[in-house]
Amino acid sequence: MARPRAGLRRRAAAGLVAVTAALGAAGCGGEENGAASASGSPSARTPAGSPAPAASTPPAAPAPPRAADGTNLRACKDGTCEVKVARRVTIAMDEDKLEVSAIKVTSLKGGEVSFDVALPSSGAFDLNCEGDPRCQTMVAGPAFGSAGNAKITAHPGARIKANGVVITVVAAAGGTAVLRMEPR
Fold first, then answer.
1. Looking only at Cα atoms, what is the longest distance across the chain?
2. Which residue ranges does the record annotate as region Disordered (predicted)?
3. pTM of the complete model beyond 0.90
4. Are residues 96 and 139 in the same domain?
5. Cβ contact 85:105 at 8 Å
6. Tell me, what CATH number does 84's domain have?
7. How many CA atoms does the CB half-sphere of 83 hold within 13 Å?
8. Interior/surface letters 79-111, b for 16+ CB within 10 angstroms, e for the rest
C-alpha cells in the first residue's frame, strides 16, 4: 500500500504546483497584474475575465480658435485682421502704409508656422520676435535695389514686429494656424 500513497503525494504536489502557478499568473506577479513596473509605480489591475483596456492613442491636437475674419485674406490689406490659414498662401499688404508688401505662409507643421515677409524695395527693415523663445528670424537682402525678405518660423504666442505690422501667431496645430495682424 505504500505505492498508492506515494502516487497520491505526487498527484497532490503536482496539483499544488499547478494551483500556485495559476494563482501567480492571475495576480501574484507580472507587470500587467499589479506588480511594480520598471518605474516603480504599481500598474492597474483588471478584474478576472475582463479584457485589458486598449492602448490609448495621444489626444488629437485641439482645433484652432475661430478667426475673426475667417479665411478672408483680403481683410489683411490694411494691416488689421485675424485669419485662419491651412495651406501656403500669400497675404497682400499695403506697402506704403506698413512697409511690408506681402506675408507668404510657406509651411504649417504641427505647432509651427513659417512665413516670409516681403520687405519694401527701399531696403528698410525693423524685425523683432517676442513671446516665443523658439522663434527664428532671418533677413535676406535687400541688394542692389531689390526688395528684401524676412524668413520667420514661429509658434503660438509669438509676436513678430516687421516694419509697420505686428503679426501674432494666435494658434498653430495640425497644419492650420490663426494669425492676427495689426499696424504697429
1. 114
2. 30-73
3. no
4. yes
5. yes
6. 2.60.40
7. 22
8. bebbbbbeeebebebbbeebbbbbbebeebeeb
